[in-house]
Inverse folding.
């Protein structure tokens, strides 16, 4: 946490260097379809878990609901909220015994599975240093990721149908440096950020790059890149669970500016 603390000290010490620019509201709709890898191994909520999302279930992108975002970009700070959902589906003959929330699936069973991720984001950006077309600041926010894993299979030898589901919510602070720019008389707007967190052995990193182009002063298109890595080793915040989730991909959308 030393690096975010240093950023916060910098932000509070340098407000006199800020320069004013025009404020705007943004509303957008977008689609984001990241790849997904990860695993759960250990015990969660008292139930055994031992499954690899790719190696065992072969989860692939299935469908993506339309996401939305709203943001205010002011002279000294910015505020943004957003939400998006992704669905993944898989069907695979497993080559080892796996366990999902206490339910065991035996080797050679054909497992049909689905995974849903819902992300709710709130971010406040303090712009510490500003120039006419460029700024440097600090993001202070939170991200709540809800995941739901469902699986079913018919056991190859007994013919018994087995089903399992697993749900969890991961609230994660979003703290880290951010930069942004405006070019071509406001027709191009971009920002990049890196959020990092280390706590009791857990590591989290989140990189975001966002570019918006406005052929019309009030209406534009957006493209963004998002990479997220979440690692919870056994013996950290959950003493009995070893978990990893990685998401990586690009998104596109339409944005209105007021």
């Amino acid at each position: 946490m030393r690096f975010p603390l240093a950023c916060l000290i910098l932000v509070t010490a340098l407000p006199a260097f800020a320069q004013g620019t025009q404020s705007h509201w943004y509303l957008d709709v977008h689609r984001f379809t990241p790849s997904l890898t990860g695993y759960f191994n250990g015990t969660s909520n008292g139930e055994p878990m031992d499954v690899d999302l790719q190696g065992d279930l072969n989860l692939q992108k299935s469908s993506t609901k339309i996401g939305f975002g709203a943001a205010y970009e002011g002279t000294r700070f910015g505020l943004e909220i957003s939400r998006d959902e992704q669905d993944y589906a898989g069907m695979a003959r497993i080559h080892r015994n796996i366990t999902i929330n206490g339910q065991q699936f035996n080797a050679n069973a054909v497992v049909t599975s689905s995974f849903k991720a819902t992300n709710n984001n709130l971010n406040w950006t303090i712009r510490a240093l500003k120039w006419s077309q460029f700024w440097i600041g600090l993001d202070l926010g939170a991200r709540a990721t809800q995941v739901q894993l469902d699986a079913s299979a018919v056991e190859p030898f007994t013919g018994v149908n087995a089903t399992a589901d697993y749900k969890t919510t991961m609230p994660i602070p979003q703290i880290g440096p951010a930069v942004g720019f405006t070019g071509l008389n406001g027709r191009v707007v971009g920002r990049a950020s890196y959020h990092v967190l280390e706590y009791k052995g857990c590591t989290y990193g989140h990189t975001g790059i966002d570019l918006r182009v406005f052929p019309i002063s009030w209406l534009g298109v957006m493209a963004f890149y998002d990479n997220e890595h979440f690692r919870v080793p056994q013996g950290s915040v959950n003493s009995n669970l070893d978990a990893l989730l990685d998401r990586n991909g690009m998104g596109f959308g339409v944005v209105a500016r007021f």
Q: What stands out?
A: The radius of gyration is 21 Å. The helical segments are 2-13. The chain has one domain: 2-257. The chain has one helix and 15 strands.
